Amino acid sequence: MTHPTRRLSAGRLTTMLGSPDPDRPAYAWLADGVRGLVANGRVLHGTALPSERDLVGAIGLSRTTVSRAYSELRDRGYATARVGAGTVVQVPGGPAAGGGEPLPLGGFGPAEGATAVDLTCAAPAAPLGLAAVYEEAMDQLPAYIGGMGYFPLGLPVLRQAIARTYERRGLATDPSQIVVTAGALAGVAAVARAVLAPGARALAESPSYPNSVISLRHHGVRVAPVPIGAEGTDLDAVSGALRSVAPAAMLCLPDFHNPTGTLLGNAGRERWARELDRHGAVGIVDETSAALWLDAEPDVVPMAAFSDRIVTIGSASKSHWGGLRLGWIRAPRPLAAGLARVRMSLDLGAPVLEQLVLARLLETGAGLSAETRGGLRGNRDWLLAELGARLPGWEARRPEGGLSLWWNLPAPRSTALADEAARGGVLLAPGSTFAVGDHGLERWIRTPYALGRESLEAAVPVIARAWDRVHGKAPRTGGPGTP
After folding, report:
1. Is residue 323 part of a domain?
2. Domain HTH gntR-type, which positions (predicted)?
3. Same domain, yes or no, for 213 and 322?
4. CB burial class (10 A; 0-12, 13-18, 19+) of residue 236?
5. Which site in 11, 58, 202, 388 is 20 to 30 Å from 234, CA atoms measured?
6. What range does the domain containing 191 cover?
7. DSSP string, 24-88
């Protein structure tokens, strides 16, 4: 077994634990404090705790107390003893493999036990303190256990919390306009059933988030592409497509578009909404990435502020945690009742506990923390510089938010690059995955930066070597960061 690469100092652990609880045995307070830090993701699996002697000097407890606390952690599966490393933190049973976001790549990410770096997924890890919020939600759960547990449109407390988030963003919203779903894709499916007949036409920018397009097509909707450039939505092209295709709806991603990362300003949102109204098309606005700003919170309002024909899809998957499996629909009043009926034809509601957790997260304003945004910002800038230095022919704009870089390649070899990188242990989604027309975009590839820096550092040289192979060059033996 390898030694850990991280070690927690006694001073840092003492600061993280805070003041001892005088009403509890000191060993129990110390053990439970460390356990809570592990459960909340603040101390990572494989981190070496300070030696007993160092912690005694920093925290002011006896050696016997610290020894008993460490023993308690080992007995409960939260630590193990390693020769040469001392007491090392572990998640009981080890971190669960998988959990990445599936894309239509012919599978569901790496197989169990695989060691590949998965860059097909663009989603952050759970926020710090999530386990504690679950514990708070458990205290609220008894109030709901006396009933049958069915809340097809969502818990009232969660619908109210979601409505308040729109109010804070400048869009008047009543809780009756909110329908809670099992994620954004469930919201897209419900909206498609409510406003689109099988065989209806819809527009979507290309590239676009592929799972949403697939969801529309599974309902029998004929989806036509509108090209989006590296600089953002081409509103002239949108206007022309609305006029020529006469669609019933259009899928819109104005907020840190996935995969391009572009953000549309208020003037553009207003024009887009007016074009939709002029041509009688419903706007299906996906706001999954709206809260993923990295440099500064953008001064924009939801696109639905400019039209009463826009249905907004939201999700907690990227702003909070994908494991919550919760999303929502914000419906204009004329469509709210119809969407509610359709929602109940799909399933009978999301889990109560997770809804209580999300309500609490929204009420406290907990989402991406300053620390998480800083980490994502650092990863974005590092990956942009590192791949740019290794592969000078690659070009990508620096997005102000979102979770990935959208690279323009010197040659149309995106699929070949993804195949070659996979042989080296790095999974990539080629540009064609995001093409609404199911082909093309071979000059583009997406590289998410939400993984830990260690994973990105392992991936970059593999990507560089893979590109050299598919682009007909000899593999590199030097360059920044090359092992």
Report:
1. yes
2. 24-92
3. yes
4. exposed
5. 388
6. 132-364
7. S-HHHHHHHHHHHHHHTTSS-TTEEPPPHHHHHHHH---HHHHHHHHHHHHHTTSEEEETTTEEE
Q: What is the 3-state secondary structure (H, E, C) of 154-173?
A: CCHHHHHHHHHHHHHCCCCC
The residues near 453 (Cβ < 8 Å, ≥ 6 apart) are 378, 379, 382
CA 89, CA 337: separation in Å to the nearest integer?
A: 51
433 with 334, same domain: the answer is: no
Q: What is the pLDDT of residues 51-96, one digit of tens each?
A: 999 999 889 899 999 999 999 999 888 888 887 778 888 877 665 5
Does pTM surpass 0.85?
A: no
Of 336, 367, 422, give the one whose Cα is nearest residue 165.
367
Asked if 47 and 155 sit in the same domain, the reply is: no
Question: Taking a C-beta distance cutoff of 8 angstroms, is the pair 22, 63 a contact?
Answer: no
For the residues of 227-261, what is the DSSP string, one character each?
A: E-BTTB--HHHHHHHHHHH--SEEEE--SS-TTT-
- Residues 326, 203, single domain; the answer is yes
| Calpha distance 460→32 (Å, rounded) | 39
**Which tens digit of pLDDT belongs to each residue from 235-289?**
999 999 999 999 999 999 999 999 999 999 999 999 999 999 999 999 999 999 9
DSSP 290: T
Q: What is the pLDDT of residues 380-406, one digit of tens each?
A: 999 999 999 999 999 999 999 999 999
Do 356 and 458 share a domain, yes or no? no
Q: Is the Cβ–Cβ distance between 476 and 439 less than 8 Å?
A: no
How distant, in Å, are the alpha carbons of 31, 105, 241, 257, 392 from that of 407?
47, 19, 26, 14, 11
**How far apart, in whole angstroms, are the C-alpha atoms of residue 422 and residue 420?**
5
Give DSSP secondary structure letters for 254-283: -SS-TTT-----HHHHHHHHHHHHHTTPEE
Cα separation, 410 vs 412, whole angstroms? 7
How far is the CA of 94 from the CAs of 35, 46, 80, in angstroms?
14, 10, 11
How many structural domains compose the chain?
Answer: 3
Sort strands 117-119 and 426-430 into parallel, antiparallel or unpaired.
Answer: parallel
Tally the C-alpha atoms within 13 A of residue 92's C-alpha that lie toward its C-beta.
9
Query: Token pair 């007909």 is at which residue?
Result: 472
Residue 328 region by backbone torsions, left for phi larger than 0, else alpha for psi between -120 and 50, else beta: beta
Region 173-193: mean pLDDT is 90
